[in-house]
Write a structure and sequence with these properties.
By secondary structure, this protein is an alpha/beta fold. It has a single domain, classed as Spore Coat Polysaccharide Biosynthesis Protein SpsA, Chain A. The protein is 30% helix and 24% strand. The strands form 3 sheets. A 7-stranded mixed beta sheet has the order 5-4-1-6-10-7-11, sandwiched between helices. Strand 8 and strand 9 form a beta hairpin. Helix 3 packs across helix 5 and helix 5 packs across helix 6. The longest helix has 14 residues. The termini are far apart.
């Protein structure tokens, strides 16, 4: 007899300061179309009724998220974020494991600074990865010609073959136990998929969308604002 069906949870690491944007406050709290960026990202995940809980991990001294998200069903704020993304995600995973989530349950890790996530991408991710033992991530195949810079950072050293290159996006969706072990064992990674790769697994690629880009610069912010105001 098979065990209980795997459940779905989400973690949003939101402890970063977003200094590259040059804003006076962390970028996840900047307003876009009348809502803070973080609220857009949370609402995108809440649009999927099959996600049981959304855990937002913020810095220990950050009280804004709790106020911003107060009263939202299925949303919890955990003020235990760390200096690095990995630390915040690990805090979220450990909190889920401590409150009843099982090793074979799914966890979707999503950037607070990707407010353009569309419901159809969540459905695609779930449908493509649901039977996988490992999981995978939203990503986009590279369409532009890619150049590798020389040591001076100002001249071209080589043109990189793009046929098998993909740009990673989020959510990245993995089994809880596998992701917890991978992140615990591998520091210095910039996303969850990298930790899973280092643990010897091959995450699956699921095609994302251009509108699901990460807001990093002032130009990104204005482009995302224009996209969201059309919704």
């Amino acid at each position: 007899m098979s065990g209980p069906a795997a459940r779905f949870f989400a973690v949003i690491p939101a402890a970063g300061a977003g200094t590259r944007l040059g804003a006076p406050q962390p970028k996840q709290y900047l307003a876009l179309g009348g809502r803070p960026m973080l609220r857009w990202s949370v609402d995108a995940l809440l649009a999927a009724p099959w996600i049981e809980r959304v855990l937002v991990v913020v810095a220990p001294d950050d009280g804004r998220a709790a106020t911003l998200l107060e009263g939202l069903a299925r949303v919890e704020v955990l003020a235990a974020g760390g200096a690095a993304r990995r630390d915040s995600v690990l805090a979220g995973l450990r909190a889920l494991a401590a409150t009843g989530a099982r090793d074979d349950d799914w966890v979707l890790v999503h950037d607070a600074a990707r407010p353009g996530l569309a419901p159809r991408l969540l459905e695609r991710l779930r449908d493509r990865l649901g039977e996988s033992a490992v999981g995978g991530l939203l990503a986009l195949p590279v369409s532009d010609t890619v150049k590798r810079a020389a040591g001076d950072g100002r001249s071209v050293a080589a043109t990189v073959e793009r046929e098998r290159l993909w740009l990673a996006q989020t959510p990245q969706m993995f089994r809880l136990g596998l992701l917890l072990d991978a992140l615990s064992a591998h520091a210095g990674v910039t996303d969850e998929a990298a930790a899973v790769e280092r643990a010897g697994h091959a995450p699956l690629l699921v095609e994302g969308a251009r509108a699901n880009f990460k807001v990093t610069t002032a130009e990104d912010l204005e482009l995302m604002r224009a996209l969201l105001e059309r919704r």
